[in-house]
Amino acid sequence: MTTGTDSGSSNPGQSGLQVSLTVLAEGPFTTFHAQAGEPDALLTTTLRVPVERIGPGPRSARFDVIVRRPGEKPFSLELGSPTPPWMVVDEKPPDNLTALLQDSRFLAQQVYAVAASTLALFESTLGRRMGWVNGGRLTISAYDRVSYRESGYYRDDGLIRFGHKRDGRTSKAVPLALFRDLVAHEVTHAIVDGYRPKWADSHAEIDQLALHEAIADLVALLSVFSTQTLVEQLLTQTGGDSRNLDDLDEDLLRRDLFRLGDGLFKRGTARPSLTDDLAANWRTLSDPHLRGGAMVQVLLRVVARLWLQRLDAPGGRSSLYQVARAGASVGRQVLSMLIRSLGYMAPVDVTWEDLLRGILAADTAVVPDDDLDYRGTVVTAFAEAGIALPTLTDLSGISTFVGLRYPVRLAALGSDPEEIVRFLWENPVLLAAAKIDPTRPIAVERVRPTLRVGPDGFVVSEIGATFTQEFRLSAAEARSFGLATRTPVFIRGGGQLRFDEGGRLSFAALKPILDLERQRAKLAAQERAIRPTDAAPPAAPPVTPHGSRRQSGSIAAQPPEVSADRRPTFHP
Length: 572
Description:
Blueprint lengths: L17 E7 L6 E2 L8 E2 L1 E7 L12 E6 L5 E4 L19 H4 L3 H23 L11 E4 L10 E3 L4 E3 L2 E2 L8 E2 L4 H16 L10 H20 L2 H12 L10 H5 L33 H24 L8 H21 L11 H15 L7 H11 L25 H4 L3 H9 L2 H6 L9 E11 L5 E15 L1 H7 L7 E11 L5 E7 L4 H13 L22 E5 L17
Parallel strand pairs: 5-7, 7-9
Antiparallel strand pairs: 1-4, 2-3, 5-6, 6-16, 8-9, 10-11, 12-13, 13-14, 14-15
C-alpha cells in the first residue's frame, strides 16, 4: 500500500489521504457471472475511506467494530499495519461462499469500510464533521446474538447490532453485516440521528421516523448503485448480452435495479418492489418503512428520468459501459442533493414538503444554474406523489425579513450559540415569524460552518444554526391557548437559520412554536396515530461457529448491555 508520509517528521502526512478497501458489491449472494465453463465469483468493489489510525478491534476515532463467534465473547482483530499510517491492510474475500461465512477478518473489514465510507460521504457533501447523538464512538456489533428483527440501530446505547440468519441455502449462518446496503442503512440512521436528534426522540411523529427510513434506504440503495460494474451486471441480467440499449425506458431502469438486501431472503429482498404504483393513502400508513418507501420511489423515479435524459444525448446509448456509467453518476448526484437538503430543514416536525423545499434550496445554493433541469425533474416527481409547494414559495424563507439588525460578531457567529440567541432576540420580526414565547428560554443546539464546492469549482461557505423551544402546557393552559384537550400538551417548534460568508441571513426554515393551527394539527395526528411497535422476535436459531483468520487473541471490549425487552430504534 502506498501512503503519503512527511519525511521530516515521524508522523504520517495523512490529512486528506484515502485508501481503497475491498467490500462485497452488494451481498454474499451477489456473484459475478463468469464466462461459460468458469465458476461464478463473488462480486466485489472497492470503497475509498480516509486514512486513519486503526487499533485492535478494529477501532478507529469514530467507530468501534466488535466481532464475535456465536456463543463466545468478542475478540479483537488486528487489521492495521504496524507502521504509519496504521491503516487497515486490504484483503480480498475468499473465492467461495462457505469460506466467506467463516472469515471474521473480512467481515470486520467490510463493516469498517462501509461505515467509514458512509460517514465520509455525509461529511464531504455537507462540508462539516458529523457527530453521534451521544458523542464518543459508534459501536457496531458485527456478529451479534440477535435475530433479523432485533438487528438495527439502538440510539440510547450508541450501538448498531447485526445478527445472522439461516434459510437453507447454506449450512452456515449468514451475517447480516455482509450485506453492504444494510450496513450503510443503519450507519445512516446513526449519522442522521446525530445531526437531527429530535427527528427520532420520544416526541417525534411518524413522518419524521418515515423520513429517517427514506433517507437510510436511499443512501443504501444509491451507494450500492454507484458501483458501475454492478449496474452493468444488473442490466445484463434483465436483458442478456444481446439487450437492445435503445429499448431502455423508465420502468425498465427501475425494475430490479434498486434492491435493498438483495438475496437476504430466499424469496427476495428486504423491501417490496420499488416499481409498484404509490398507494393512494401512503401519507397515512402507520409503518414508517412503508410511508418512507413512497419517498424512496419518488427519488428513484428522479434517478431514472435523469438517467434517461443522459442516455438520450448523442452517444449516450453507445455501449453498456456508457449506460452504466451514466446511471451510476446520476445516482451519486441525486444522493448528494438529498444529503445536502438535511442542512435546509428544521430540527423538528419536518414534513415531506419540507424535504422538497430543502432539496431545491440546497441545490440552488450550490448549483445556481440548473441547465439540465434536475430541480424541475424533482418537482415533477414529488407532484406526482401529491407533494407540492405553494406557487409563490420563497425558497430562502427570508423575503419578508427586512431591516434585520446584526448586533453580532462574525468571528463568534460560526461557533457561539449565544450569538444566535442574541440575533433572534434583537430581531422581533424573526421572533414573530417563529412565534417564540418570549417568556421562555430558546435553545440553540448547533452552530457550525459548512464548506461545499460547487460544479464551477467555487467554494460555498455558510454558517448553519438550529434553535428550538419546547415546553409542556397544563390542560388548563392548553385549553386557554385554544387546544381541545383534557391532558397536558407538549409544545415544540424551532428553526434552521443559514448565514452567508458575510454573516448575513440567507435562509430560514421555521416551525412556529405558538402556532395554534400547527399545534392543533399535531395534537390531532397524535390522537389518531399509534406508534408502531415490533412483535416479539422469534427465538434465534442455533448457529455454526464463525471462524477467523489473523486474530490477535486478545479480548475485545464488550458491546453495551441491552435489556432483553429492548427493541432497536430503527431496524432494516
